[in-house]
Design goal:
0% strand; 2 helices; 86% helix; Helix Hairpins; mainly alpha
């Protein structure tokens, strides 16, 4: 999979692609659901990164 930073970057690119796709295909509900899942996954990874960086500062 790669580092967490790379995963966040990769998910961000997927979000951009899906967003532009949904501008053309507004009723593509499967893609809307996929976008929400990817947004949630990216947010969890960002939360993990911020928590990890705080732990590194304390140590």
């Amino acid at each position: 999979m790669g580092s967490v930073q790379f995963q966040v970057l990769n998910l961000t690119n997927k979000i951009r692609r899906l967003t532009s796709h949904l501008e053309l295909h507004r009723k593509d509900y499967f893609s809307q659901r996929s976008l929400l899942k990817i947004l949630g996954k990216r947010q969890r990874l960002i939360d993990y990164l911020s928590k990890k960086s705080v732990e590194n500062e304390v140590v």
